[in-house]
Design goal:
The chain has about 300 residues and is of the alpha/beta class. Helix content is about 45%, strand content about 10%. Strand 1 and strand 2 form a beta hairpin. Helix 1 packs across helix 2, helix 6 packs antiparallel against helix 7 and helix 7 packs antiparallel against helix 8.
Length: about 300
């Protein structure tokens, strides 16, 4: 977190000069957004809080010309750095809600911040993907009055998906089917923790994540003791590939597929980014949502001990 603050205080870049303003628009340097610099008298923690609180003070949410002239990649990076500052409270969407409400002063500005949030908080490949912060963005877009019913189809669908299996809530149940044909339910699994792995046997990254789980000393030891159970669920139709993959995963994992296709048809889980890991407690409450980094699972289990 402190490293993020240090990075933020030095990401200003070159500002336009009066001379630049006399150049034709196509040759003028792109305008830049400069986040605030924390006073040197503050402690590192206070600096971090200062930058987080005042991050957007220098941004004019009424200046729609600015967002046409600024470099979009730079602005996506600036937005990502702000999200990094919020990761100490990953379930708190209110800071994001306040900023997007300011952006809702015009459709052009709201469109722009919606795009930034989509790239940083929603894109399956973003390491900062976070539904709890993306939900207030979607709610603001939907409630803004700027969009017609067809334009709202995408944010309404995304809000439906993002609202599934939220942190601290009970995960949606899954009826899974084993290779033997026997069926079971996620909610009936008895263990202190359940690691739900939604995966595809033909996905290279899925193989990497499965290997990382199987290679984790902490997880392996808990699986042996029975305090953690791994439920592998394949959500697609090609069970030939799924059956052929059985010997590639540990024998003690619950290796299954969604025979009825409920996860896909009813959108009970986000399948846009596979593999996806959920860590659930003994009551099936979500502790980690839609992750792909096994170290996050280990960290959450460790701090819960």
């Amino acid at each position: 977190m402190l490293a993020a603050a240090a990075m933020l205080t030095s990401c200003g870049g070159r500002q336009s000069s009066p001379k630049d303003a006399t150049l034709p628009a196509q040759t003028r340097p792109a305008r830049v957004f400069v986040p605030p610099v924390a006073p040197a008298s503050l402690t590192p923690e206070q600096m971090c809080d200062y930058v987080k609180t005042h991050y957007w003070d220098n941004f004019n949410f009424a200046d729609t010309v600015f967002i046409r002239e600024i470099d979009t990649v730079d602005m996506i990076e600036a937005f990502a750095k702000y999200v990094i500052l919020l990761t100490d409270e990953p379930t708190n969407g209110e800071p994001m809600r306040r900023i997007v409400k300011k952006a809702a002063s015009s459709r052009a500005m709201l469109d722009y911040f919606y795009m930034l949030a989509d790239k940083v908080l929603h894109d399956p490949n973003s390491p900062l993907r976070n539904d709890e912060m993306y939900i207030p963005v979607l709610e603001t877009v939907i409630g803004s009055g700027y969009y017609d019913e067809y334009e709202l189809l995408s944010p309404e669908y995304d809000l439906k998906i993002a609202s599934q299996n939220r942190l601290g809530t009970v995960a949606n149940d899954i009826r899974y089917t084993l290779a033997s044909g026997k069926q079971g339910r996620l909610h009936d699994i008895r263990a202190d923790y359940v690691l739900l792995l939604i995966s595809n046997p033909e996905c290279p990254m899925c193989a990497d994540v499965s290997e990382a789980i199987a290679s984790s000393p902490m997880i392996s030891e808990m699986v042996e003791r029975g305090s953690l159970k791994v439920l592998y669920v394949y959500p697609d139709e090609d069970i030939v590939a799924w059956r052929a993959h059985r010997e590639s995963v540990p024998a003690k994992w619950i290796y299954s597929y969604d025979k009825e296709g409920v996860m896909k048809e009813q959108s009970t889980y986000n399948l846009s980014a596979i593999p996806s890991i959920y860590l659930l407690d003994k009551d099936k409450k979500v502790l980690v949502k839609d992750a792909s980094d096994v170290s996050v699972i280990e960290y959450v289990i460790d701090i819960a001990k």
